[in-house]
Design goal:
132 residues; alpha+beta; three-stranded antiparallel beta sheet; 5 strands; 30% helix
Length: 132
Amino acid sequence: MEMIVDFPGGARVDAHFGPFTVATDQPPSGGGANSAPSPFAMFLASIGTCAGIYVLGFCRQRGISAEGIRIVQNTAVDPATGMVQKVFLDIQVPPDFPEKYKSAVIRAADQCAVKKHLEHPPAFEVTASTTS
């Protein structure tokens, strides 16, 4: 999938792919206007929302309502490097959620493609070229 990333002004950086535009910005402390999430916040959100897609799919396949289900995501950060050390996902289910499916819904969320890519990261190649 090709994405075109451009710079619409200020500290904003947008990604365009297919019919979509994903806008990002920096907080004022980073020179931005806080008009959109930061790229790193979008990265973190992709983890929780990806797990959510798998939880939703699990519920749909079994005819279970997803109403009242939510995923609470937190991170542990290394204070020396500022790097995320661990991501915590807590799938919170309502009292009427079938007990027999709790471990299965965790396994479903564990299949998240974003998580799998973080566990087995791709190689990166960055180049610079002159536009015509």
